[in-house]
Amino acid sequence: MRTFGSLLVRGLIVGLFAGLLAGTFAYVTGEPRIDASIAIEEAGAHAHTHAHEEDHHEDPLVSRDGQRAGLFLATSLYGVALGGLFAVAFTLLRRKLRTGNDAYAALGLAAAGFVGIVVVPFLKYPPNPPAVGDPDTITRRTVTYLLTLVIGLLAVWAGVALSRWAARYGDVARLAGGVAGLVGTVVAAYLILPGINEVPESFPATLLWQFRFASLGTQATLWLLIGFGYAVAVDRRPIRSKVAAA
Amino acid sequence: MAAPARSVAVPALSPKLLSVALLSVGLMLLLAYLVGFDQGAVSQSGMFLHELMHDGRHLLGVPCH
């Protein structure tokens, strides 16, 4: 038995490490794409304000090098937050997960979180590099994005509930029920939610998708490491009982 | 052989546990908000936090300008 404090601290530590490594992945795969996008933005702005070049140079609040370092800060803090939320979810949902093995429970919960919080929003509103979004729609985009997070988690829950209900009709029905619950909820939500297409015609498609896969990979790294890290952290028994078991 | 069943390692649900868990969720959401959604309107940092974590925000899939 572990106390809630111990479960939470494990989540925070696992989240911190997962965030740091996700930041490394993002730095290697994402930063070159962000630099390329900003270069495109600046080339466009330069052509625009060619006449008044003297007032074009304003000092940025944070330099590009600062932002590159800030990337690690962002992914680490986000990892800590997700790790903490994961630990709370594990504590509250553990008894509902039908496995006797805490490590499997952690992995299942991480898979559910990745599908609900990352994959479902990604497919409806794939992330864009800098220089693409319209600043005027940021509030609307934030609200719809948060909606897809909630809908993603609801869809996972619907999938689990339907698969458990259908289990009485056999294994095929159980699987079909899970898929139907998940996909049905997601498709219904996608049809209702507004489409947002702000990528300029001139923006290179290859760069856009390289950025999007870097973003997906960053979040996959984060969730994979939280799942496996927490599985190890929560599974670790006192050394004495390991020796006794051996 | 199937993986051996182990005892469930979480404490039983109680009002105290729920309140502490809820408080933790609030703190974690505040942290996530600072990373992902702070535009300088609520915090007193202006756009500094936003700009500092700008690259991470884009790569974590959060909407941004």
From TrEMBL, chain A:
Record-linked InterPro entries: CbtA_put
Stretches that traverse the bilayer: 7-28, 69-92, 104-123, 143-163, 175-193, 213-233
Keywords: Membrane, Transmembrane, Transmembrane helix
Superkingdom, taxonomy of origin: Bacteria
Name under which the protein is recorded: Putative cobalt transporter CbtA
UniProtKB/TrEMBL annotation, chain B:
Positions of transmembrane segments: 17-37
Keyword terms, alphabetized: Membrane, Transmembrane, Transmembrane helix
Pfam families: CbtB
Stated name of the protein: CbtB-domain containing protein
